[in-house]
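Need a sequence for this fold. Nothing fancy.
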């Protein structure tokens, strides 16, 4: 086992001076906390970095603080990042340094990540390495390439009074992070698939919580190991989606998957008569193709605009899903769900997820649909973007220009141009469409519903589907039952 330490110096100077005014009273002066330089130690396979988000902690009040008053303090923030390819176990210690007039640790309050305060001496006391006292304030593990952020506040506890030995005292400490290599974490391939993937997220950077109101867990990056065998063919896992509503209004956590190979090219909507190319999903040609023909392994008729010698005509063609549609075993493992039909704005990526679930639709278009087979949302593509040493995922989620930021290159859903289930809220003809290689500076834009484009079916698995085996790779996909 190799050990290493990264040390941040935090000096808490509490100069407590009593004074007398009319009657009997006291005041407290010049309390402050400052952070100085960081000492970083490197090794071949273990590197825990402190990333300083601000230079110091400042106490605006120099007297004992109540818990409510302490909430207003500016915390010191740091991020521990595991940049190696092995799992790291770490502990965060607050080590007390000797000084001539040292404030007793019993009067120092600590709040980690805005949690309820604890007096420092309430933490586990461990053997000091450079100081006179040492307290373990946090432990954890970090998977390869993962990071964790902390905020910490220190203040003079409200229990301190003039009768205590606190006047003219100083408190100096260092944050010490000890890191060591651990045995790789092996997640047993058994039990409910959604639970397995949630546990797997602790060991890989390919699964990331999206931070939306439902905080879904999604596969991200250029080519994650998210292959799954379904319907006797390869599909890929979009993520573990929370609060998925069924036809009865019940909500549960379910795994959402997409067919790895496109089903073909079809117009979103194209029917003879006055309704050619409308973006009402409930009446669309594509809904009928997917939720009837593909789901029921049927053959049928669909329409397409065909150009011959400069003339465009509407022609009827035949589809046949009798051999590649969803078989009975596949249908036993999936369940219908509510698909939201709200439309996001074309400017704010951060609002996509919520607006898809809103009532922002064109005129009387439906806001939701209950069905078995649908398409991805624009937000599914957005949140599939990964992160590399040269690409910050947060920037991709905030910046509109995906071309300049090469965000599309780190997205496993960037396989071809394809339709989404989401219509425009501005007119009756446009549908949100994913574009390949970020050609429009964005990852998605509108395209007329009557234009044909690649279709990739999407379904929700039942909550009780279990995992049997597999590594999630293309050659060893997850096996489920």
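Here you go.
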């Amino acid at each position: 086992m190799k050990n290493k330490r990264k040390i941040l110096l935090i000096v808490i100077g509490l100069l407590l001076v009593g004074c007398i005014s009319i009657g009997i009273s006291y005041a407290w002066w010049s309390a402050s906390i400052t952070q100085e330089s960081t000492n970083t130690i490197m090794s071949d396979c273990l590197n825990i970095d402190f990333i300083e988000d601000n230079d110091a902690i400042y106490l605006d009040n120099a007297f004992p603080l109540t818990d409510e008053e302490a909430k207003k303090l500016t915390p010191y923030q740091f991020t521990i990042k595991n940049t190696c390819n092995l799992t790291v176990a770490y502990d965060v210690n607050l080590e007390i340094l000797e000084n001539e007039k040292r404030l007793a640790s019993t009067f120092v309050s600590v709040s980690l990540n805005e949690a309820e305060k604890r007096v420092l001496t309430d933490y586990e006391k461990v053997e000091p390495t450079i100081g006179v006292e040492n307290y373990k304030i946090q432990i954890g593990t970090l998977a390869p390439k993962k990071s964790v952020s902390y905020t910490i506040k220190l203040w003079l506890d409200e229990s301190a009074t003039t009768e205590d030995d606190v006047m003219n005292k100083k408190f100096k400490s260092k944050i010490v992070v000890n890191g060591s290599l651990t045995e790789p974490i092996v997640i047993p391939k058994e039990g409910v698939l959604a639970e397995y993937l949630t546990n797997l997220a602790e060991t890989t950077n390919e699964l990331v919580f999206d931070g939306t109101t439902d905080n879904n867990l999604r596969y991200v990056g250029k080519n994650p190991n998210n292959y799954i065998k379904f319907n006797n063919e390869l599909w890929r896992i979009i993520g573990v989606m929370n609060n998925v509503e069924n036809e009865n209004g019940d909500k549960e956590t379910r795994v959402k998957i997409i067919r790895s190979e496109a089903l073909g090219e079809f117009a979103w909507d194209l029917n003879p008569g006055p309704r050619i190319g409308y973006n009402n999903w409930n009446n669309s040609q594509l809904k009928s193709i997917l939720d009837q023909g593909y789901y029921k392994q049927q053959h049928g008729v669909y329409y397409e605009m065909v150009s011959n010698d400069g003339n465009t005509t509407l022609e009827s063609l035949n589809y046949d899903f009798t051999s590649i549609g969803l078989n009975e075993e596949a249908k036993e493992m999936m369940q219908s769900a509510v698909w939201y039909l709200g439309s996001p704005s074309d400017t704010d990526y951060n609002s996509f997820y919520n607006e898809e679930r809103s009532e922002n639709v064109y005129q009387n278009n439906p806001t939701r649909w209950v069905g078995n087979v649908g398409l991805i949302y624009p937000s599914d593509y957005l949140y599939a973007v990964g992160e590399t040493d040269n690409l910050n995922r947060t920037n991709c989620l905030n910046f509109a220009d995906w071309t300049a930021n090469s965000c599309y290159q780190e997205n496993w859903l960037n396989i071809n141009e394809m339709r989404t289930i989401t219509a425009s809220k501005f007119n009756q003809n446009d549908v949100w469409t994913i574009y390949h290689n970020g050609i429009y500076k964005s990852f998605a834009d509108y395209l007329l519903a009557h234009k044909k484009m690649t279709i990739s079916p999407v379904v929700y698995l039942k909550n009780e589907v279990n995992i049997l085996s597999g590594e999630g790779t293309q050659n060893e996909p997850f096996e489920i039952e």
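For context: The chain has two domains: 3-181, 193-480.
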